[in-house]
Amino acid sequence: MAVRTAIDSRRGMRMTAAGARRAGLPHLRALRAAGAIALSLLVSSCQILGDGTSVGTVSTGVRPSLTSDIGAREHPRVVATYGGVYKDPGAERAVASVVGRLVAASDDPSQSYKITILNSPAINAFALPGGYLYVTRGLLALANDTSEVAAVLAHEMAHVTANHAIKRQQRAEAKQLADRILNDVVQDSEEARKAIISSQLSFARFSQVQELEADAIGVKTLARAGYDPYAAARFLRSMAAYAQYQSADSSSSTGAPDFLSSHPSTPERLQIAVKSARQIGTPGIGERDRDRYLTQINGMLYGDDPLEGFVRGRSFLHKALGIGFTVPQGYILENSTEAVLASNGDGTAIRFDGADVSGFPNLVDYMKSGWINGLLPESVRETTINGLPGVTGAAITQGWSFRIAVVRIGRTGYRFIFASRSPNQRFDTDFRATVDSFRQLTPTERARLQSLRIKVIKTKPGDTPRKLAVGMSGVEPSRRLQFFSILNDLEPNKAIPEGTAVKLVVE
Questions:
Q1: pTM of the model
Q2: What residues are paired with 416 via a beta bridge?
Q3: Topology of 306-447 in CATH?
Q4: Which CATH class is domain 450-506?
Q5: Would you state the pLDDT for residue 284?
Q6: 392-431 burial: b if 16+ Cβ within 10 Å, else e
Q7: Digit-coded pLDDT (tens) for 266-287
Q8: How far is CA 192 from the centre of its chain?
Q9: Would you kindly state where each structural domain of the chain is located, as residue ranges?
């Protein structure tokens, strides 16, 4: 959570789309700028894979200068959204070392590219028209060798050479027009609904075809450049394992594909990736270059940027603001530029953020000022949280129950919002425990808070994942072995060969 969030003006009770999806929540009073919608249509946000099919690119009739103009216009917005540009000589060399080889092996060697490393812990990569490619430092931290980074870049380059972003925007505009006509013209509402669903499925499939086309082009480019063609499948497997690790309720996942998703399901893409690589050769071909890659990212920032605060296990700590709180067992914390989010396996979601409350004589007036839909006025109570003035309340709207608390420090009101469709005793207990844990950090605690970094070491005789995982920071002890194994793509119960380069996360 950025420092600026703590001095926001009054805003509606809302949760980011990603956090809402994880908890099954509706997107409460979410406001989206038109520019952000346009950006989402243009960005080809991807997971990496290949299907081995031969798909030719199709000209869109869009002049090259137009695509460059679009990329140049949207570039500053992308950089701002993802925390700015990440500057690290080693990481930059790791990315730059593969670009020339991939461009020479690509379907269009004349295409130029501008590659940016984004200062975000999220694991993501995407492309804009005109050769603008982006990878996050979170993605670079998860990768274990040069070939995996090359797989990501080859896939994104394929989106550029195939003009996917422009095609996606054109198709989206046509779909929106068709949906509006159907709503305005078709009298039978059920018939209109069926037609719109059909349109949505067609658009989703169009996007999936784009991904598979980029997969096919990317894997072939990867192999032509001399890299391990199995890297795409290997990295997808790591991404899937990390996503499951982050999930608060991974055991409840059905693995069923979402047919309105723009991406094919992970199991499908993994199977296709392996099949595609096998058509090129047997495992063991191509360059991987693990040691050099890990040496280059040694010392790279990991996790949250210090300006956004730190997640340490189940605690959120903000050095600059001097605040912290802890969520109960079973919740997974996620920090973002807008807020701190958390959810558990029982369908409870938490949002923590800040707002400017200087215009209100007391917190009761602020709580009743209209920023909460469905507030129950009789539930509002003044309280004290670790010596700080606070207020609590409850709300019910759209089938959801909410517990809200605001704690004041100076001009800022720090807000906790708990939400559940099925509130029970634990819901109230967890709310109270979390709010009661909110406190101001001591000067000593603030001084000791340090950023997490990637530290690369070579294993010694007798080293195992369990032994090395003990040295991991920023993770609950019970989850260290799983985290270490995913980060290094190693089996948790197998010995590690002597001299293997592995990553630790340390303060």
A1: 0.69
A2: 352, 405
A3: Protein Transport Mog1p; Chain A (3.40.1000)
A4: alpha beta
A5: 86
A6: bbbbebeebbbbbbbbbbeebbbbbbbbbeebeeebeebb
A7: 777 777 778 788 888 888 889 9
A8: 35
A9: 34-47+55-285, 306-447, 450-506
